[in-house]
Structure formats: C-alpha cells, structure tokens
Write a structure and sequence with these properties.
Layout: H1 2-18, H2 37-71, H3 83-96, H4 108-131, H5 136-160, H6 163-173, H7 182-201, H8 203-210, H9 213-218, H10 223-245, H11 251-263, H12 267-289, H13 300-323
Helix pairs in contact: 1-12, 2-7, 2-8, 2-10, 2-11, 2-12, 3-4, 3-5, 3-10, 4-5, 4-10, 7-10, 11-12, 12-13
C-alpha cells in the first residue's frame, strides 16, 4: 500500500511541476525567471490552471467517495443525485440576472451555486419525507428526478439567453478551468482541506455506514441524521467547485471505484489514493484538452466524459452481471 501511495505522490509532483511547461506555446526553464511572454504564460495562466485542476480533481473524487460510501452504491455521485446540476442551475441564474451578492468573501456565483446545490438536497429530503420512505433506493430515484429537473432549468435559461451569452454558458456547462486563477485556487484549497478534515474526523462513521444501515445503527450511529449532514456538506462543497469549474463529469464516479480496489478495506488509505488520483486525472485530462486539437482549447469536461462514459458502462454491466 505504501508503495502505491509513494508512486502516486511522485506522479502528482511530476505533473504539478511539468504540466505548466507543456502546451501549444512551449515554455522553457529560462522563461520561469526572466521577463518574457513565456514568463506570463507560465505564472499567470498555466500554474494557476494546473493548481485549480489538481485541487478540483481531488475535490470531485473525494465528493464521489463520500457519496458512494453514504449510499453504498458504486454509481452514486453528486451528478446522479442532482447536486451538481442544482449547483449549475444556481450559477446559470446568477449569470442570467447578473446577481452580484457576495457573502464572506465569496462571489455571487459561489453563493448562488451553493444555493442551487442546497435546494437540490432539500428537495430530495422533502420528497423522501412526503413519501415516508427513507430507503437508499428512494434517495437515488429522487436524486435522478431532481437532476432532470435542474437540467431542464438550465436548458430553459440557455434558450432565453441571447446568442453571445448562450455560447459562453454552453462552454461553461462543458466544464473547464481555463479562466481559473490564484484566487479560485486558494478558495478551493481551503474548502478541500476542510472537507478532508470532515472525512477524516468522521472516518469511523463512514466505515460503519459502508457496512450497512443496520450495522451502523447497532453501533449507535443515527444513520438518517448522519446521512443528512453528509448530504448538506456535499451540497456546500460541490456548489463551490461547480461555481469555479462548471459541471465536470465522471471524476466523482471513476476515481473512487479505482481507489477502493487499490485501498482495500483501509479507509484512510482509500481517501489518500482518491485525493491523489483525482488530482492527477483532472490535470492530465486538462493537458490533453488543451493539446488535442491546437490551437483550440477544448473544455476539460469533454475529455473526462469521453473517457469516463465507457468506464461507467463497464461498471454498470459488471453490477448487472453480479446482480444476475
């Protein structure tokens, strides 16, 4: 296990150092220290973009791990449960009506993205309470329905936007980190560290919940309350990530599945692998996105979906085969 973690740490360090030098316009080692166009490209564009890519990738992967652990389903992700689409809808509304509300140093986009994610969670809990069925199946089905609802809200506002706004919104909806800077990197890093503390502090509860609701309840855990609390934390966290990067798919699905295979039953090791693997995967995907069809800078969400969709299909077929 320590060897895998060491290899992932080395790969992560290698990518963080090397990737800012790579791209359509080459940047040399000398450009790092001297004033030149390459100096601006390196420090003002590629370094913050790489940092945001790594932090956002790690964030999405950890969110997926928590989601799959809480719902005991390898296919459960913030995307599937409507949290990401709710956050995206909040951001779209803020863009459409040019809402500038700022709270605690967070911009209007961050605030309304969180509000959208929170509204998705609250809607799910409201429906679950109305039907008086707290089974995992009910949560997942409600999440899928909420996901479709907020997706339709996004499409509606896309339709009523003018052409220029519709194009920029469509590009944002594909997911990307091209315009991210050091401010966004700092915000996401603080939230990521807080989310990591939350995961590690409640590691015992997550492990009990992964063994089943009855087992966790027998050990004194209030399953419903802890699931609700985890859901709310996810809403806040995903809202912030989506407001910066847009809805980037499949990272939250693919990485936790691989991490559990490598981490086995050791929860802390699985968390560490998820953190490193998610960051490395999104940084690599972003490098591919800006190098695939020069001089175009393809949104990274297209690349992650391109490779994540086949993996999702294989995972779904494996589960169906196991169930049959």
């Amino acid at each position: 296990m320590s060897r895998k973690l060491l290899i992932l740490c080395l790969v992560a360090a290698f990518l963080l150092v090397l990737v800012p030098f790579l791209g359509i316009i080459p940047v040399g080692w000398a450009d790092v220290l001297r004033e030149s166009p390459g100096h601006f490209i390196f420090w003002s564009l590629r370094v913050p973009r790489t940092l945001v890519g790594f932090i956002a990738g790690a964030s999405l992967a950890l969110a997926g791990l928590v989601c799959q652990n809480v719902f005991k389903n390898d296919l459960a992700t913030p995307d599937l449960l409507g949290i990401s689409s709710g956050a995206a809808a909040g951001t779209v509304i803020a863009l459409k009506f040019k809402l500038r509300l700022a709270v605690l140093g967070m911009s209007g986009l961050h605030v309304f993205s969180f509000a959208g994610a929170l509204s998705a969670v609250l809607l799910i809990f409201f429906i679950v309470r109305v039907v008086k069925n707290v089974s995992l199946y009910t949560f997942l089905m409600c999440g899928i329905a909420i996901n479709f609802f907020f997706s339709s809200v996004i499409v509606f506002f896309q339709y009523v936007f003018d052409y220029a706004d519709t194009f920029s919104l469509l590009r944002w909806m594909m997911g990307g980190i091209a315009n991210a800077g050091y401010r966004e990197a700092a915000l996401l890093l603080v939230l990521l560290l807080l989310f990591l503390l939350f995961i590690l502090f409640f590691a015992r509860e997550f492990q009990m919940l992964s063994a089943g609701d009855e087992f966790a309840a027998g050990r004194g855990l209030n399953v419903g309350r802890f699931r609700a609390f985890s859901f709310l934390v996810l809403a806040f966290f995903i809202g912030a990530v989506v407001s910066v990067c847009g809805p980037i798919g499949f990272i939250a699905l693919v990485v936790p599945h691989v991490s559990r295979l490598w981490g086995g039953n050791r929860f802390q090791a699985t968390v560490a692998i998820t953190f490193l693997l998610g960051g490395c995967l999104l940084v690599s995907a972003d490098l591919l996105a800006r190098s695939l069809v020069p001089p175009l800078d393809i949104p990274v969400g297209i690349v992650t979906s391109m490779f994540g969709a086949p993996f999702f299909l294989l995972l779904l077929l494996a589960q169906l085969r196991k169930a049959g």
